[in-house]
Write a structure and sequence with these properties.
Strand content: 5-15%
Distance between the termini: 44 Å
Number of strands: 13
Number of domains: 3
Largest sheet: 5 strands, antiparallel
Length: 682
């Protein structure tokens, strides 16, 4: 196989480049999904409710609020007609839907009136059709201009879509130069980094293009997967070319040197890819399918990166290796000789610090406050600023839609009365309290009744003032569901943003234990096979897992909320991506230990491998922090921050804690490792 790749190097290079070009075009036809509810499992209550509503009603869930300043009742009604005329806008609700405007406002329930009209400001609630958020919000902005305000779930989705491409390009514009600088100072050739980036870049493009066979990807996958694939798999290319440089010193034949490099580096690259592959595979087990979507793309990306490095990169390098020779330069960074002595001196403090931090960190990360959607609004965007303006005037308003079996108006009236007794419920829109129970629906025109009734269901919309997520909003969701169930049992369905987030919470909490357990088990199995040892996998997993726990405990100690999707994904991604540092260090220690005692072996290992690990950690950490800085999406941003911080913490634990553990357990490792052959001295 190696000989065939080397012999047909031009064909290999052309094939990969053409495939990458086709994939680069194909990626533009892959749909990006920004709707988190689509990733809930089919048996989730929200999923069933939305499918039922789509089948039964023309309208959808209210997902947008529009506020007009300084308007009279008549002007507000005129604006309502303009909003209703926009294609993609449905169910525009205002004061005239809650009461008869022929009645003087002074003689009606003031709390009800001020839900929609207050201080000459009119607040409309409406639905924007899914998939058309950008076009429809743009049309609404043309009506409201800069003087009025619009906010809501659909507006957030539109903003994310608009900024996604810009932010991805911005992240790439920052990241690529940083990676090139890191690679340039870590190599002895000006163009060698281009070979690394080309090999992995081609695999990234092919990965993006092959998503066309899946049909669509989530916004998290689109934002995170390409950059994460690049950062995690660059090591493979570095391993191969460093090995190639080594063998070129032993033979004058570049093709022979490459064949030897492919043979020698294959086990290290395969082991590194395997741990990452199986770690990411655990994400595909998530019932909340955003994790599964990301996991599938990362697994596919790792396989493609491995193939690219073992097939495309050797062929590319042999075609242009003379460029490497012509652009060689002296090392910019001195070697790390002597760092082993420093690490050995601090081994006891390193052990004590980590062991003291492990338990509180584990407990803290288990008690972190989580958000399950996009969290608090920021005034950095128009959508965020408008949200704060609307909330300041009218407070929070979160609709919960109830679908109940049609036919019993008396029972429906009792349900509505009980809902109104809930303190957080500000108003309820239903047939029984808008039209009344005296007039049978069949005596009215369909344009009046279609809003409330379908063939099989009655629709009730309850508005609450407690936001979309958190302890109180979720308690309100549970209360509404319990009240509805007391009248209609399991036939009552609820939906809305707060209901969706409540279902996401229920789903991902179950995912957490499964995904973490499976990722640890999968990586442990790979480590057992790689090292043929029982003790080494325990040491390596403890080293990286302690870094994961410390990383995830920071939000608890800083009293900040953490986006749960980011927490769940990063607990797997950090483990899978950074365990390579520990593998590289331990593999080298094992080899050195066959020729010398434990202390000199660990010193030599540290002197030789610290540089390689620091480069890998610097790249992965840079990727994380750039994602954090450039993304306005809280989920993507939180993944970036956790990844950047996690890579640094993993580097520190591998540099300080792992050597101390290897020294402490040297005899145990020797006895529990197949054919360890550790040097015993004379």
């Amino acid at each position: 196989m190696r000989a065939r790749i080397i012999r047909n190097k031009k064909i290999v290079v052309i094939t990969f480049l053409v495939t990458a070009l086709i994939a680069a075009v194909a990626q533009f036809f892959v749909h990006v999904n920004y709707n988190m509810i689509d990733y809930l499992p089919d048996d989730a209550q929200s999923t069933k409710a939305i499918l039922t509503m789509e089948e039964e009603f023309k309208g959808s869930i209210p997902n947008t609020r529009v506020m007009f300043h300084d308007v009279s009742i008549q002007e507000a009604l005129a604006y309502k007609e303009e909003l209703e005329a926009i294609d993609g806008v449905t169910d525009v609700l205002w004061l005239d839907d809650a009461m008869d405007l022929k009645t003087p406002l002074e003689m009606t329930d003031q709390e009800l009136v001020e839900t929609y009209y207050k201080n000459d400001k009119a607040l409309f609630t409406l639905s924007i059709r899914q998939g058309e958020e950008v076009a429809v919000t743009d049309a609404i902005y043309e009506i409201i201009g800069d003087d009025h305000a619009m906010a809501g779930e659909a507006v957030d989705t539109a903003t994310s879509q608009k900024m996604a491409v810009t932010e991805t390009l911005y992240a790439a514009a920052l990241l690529v130069p940083i990676i090139i600088i890191i690679l340039v100072i870590s190599t002895t050739s000006w163009v060698e980094p281009i070979f690394f980036l080309t090999a992995i870049g081609v695999s990234v493009l092919i990965n993006l293009g092959t998503n066309i066979f899946i049909g669509e990807v989530s916004f998290v996958t689109q934002s995170v997967a390409p950059i994460l694939q690049l950062a995690v798999s660059l090591d493979y290319a570095i391993f191969l070319l460093h090995s190639f440089s080594h063998f070129r010193k032993e033979t004058n034949n570049p093709e022979e040197a490459m064949a030897l490099a492919m043979k020698r580096s294959f086990p290290a690259i395969a082991a590194s890819a395997a741990t990452t592959f199986f770690g990411f595979t655990a994400l595909t087990l998530m019932r909340f399918e955003i994790g599964a979507d990301l996991g599938l793309n990362l697994v596919k990306g790792i396989v493609l990166s491995f193939i690219s490095v073992m097939v495309f990169l050797p062929a590319l390098t042999l075609m242009f290796y003379k460029w490497i020779d012509k652009t060689s330069h002296k090392p910019f960074i001195p070697d790390f000789k002597g760092i082993g002595n420093v690490v050995v001196k601090i081994k006891i403090p390193s052990l004590l610090i980590v062991f003291l931090l492990i338990v509180p960190s584990f407990l803290a990360q288990s008690n972190t406050t989580f958000t399950y959607g996009l969290g608090e609004q920021s005034d950095a965007t128009r959508a965020g600023a408008d949200y704060l303006i609307i909330e300041e005037t009218f407070g929070k308003s979160t609709p919960i839609v109830l679908l109940v079996p049609k036919g019993d108006l008396a029972k429906e009236e009792m349900l509505v009365e009980e809902l109104m007794e809930l303190a957080p419920v500000t108003s309820v829109i239903s047939y029984v309290n808008t039209v009344g129970t005296v007039i049978p629906p069949e005596y009215l025109e369909s344009q009046v009744t279609d809003e409330f009734f379908s063939e099989n269901y009655s629709r009730i919309v309850a508005y609450t003032n407690v936001g979309t997520e958190g302890e109180l909003p979720f308690a309100v969701v549970e209360s509404v569901q319990e009240i509805a169930a007391s009248y209609y049992g399991e036939e009552a369905l609820t939906l809305g943003e707060s209901v969706t987030l409540f279902d996401i919470k229920q789903t991902v909490m179950r995912d957490n234990t499964l995904v973490n357990s499976m990722s640890v088990a999968a990586i442990a199995l790979v480590l057992i096979v790689t090292f043929r040892s029982i003790s080494i996998p325990v040491v390596l997993l403890l080293t990286i897992q302690s870094a994961v726990w410390i990383n995830l405990s920071v939000p608890y100690f800083t009293d900040t909320s953490l986006v749960f999707v980011g927490f769940l994904i990063i607990s797997t991604v950090q483990l899978a991506a950074t365990v390579d540092y520990a593998i590289l260090m331990t593999e080298a220690y094992k080899e050195n230990r066959k020729e010398m005692l434990a202390l000199p072996a660990i010193k030599k290992t540290m002197d030789e491998k610290t540089f390689s690990i620091s480069i890998s950690a610097a790249i992965l950490s840079s990727v994380g922090f750039i994602l954090w800085i450039t993304s306005s999406n809280p989920i993507v941003s939180s993944i970036g921050l956790l990844l950047g911080r996690g890579a640094l913490l993993a580097f520190i634990t591998v540099l300080c804690f792992l050597p101390a553990m290897l020294l402490l357990l040297d005899k145990v490792i020797s006895k529990t490792t197949v054919k360890a052959n550790f040097y015993k001295g004379k």
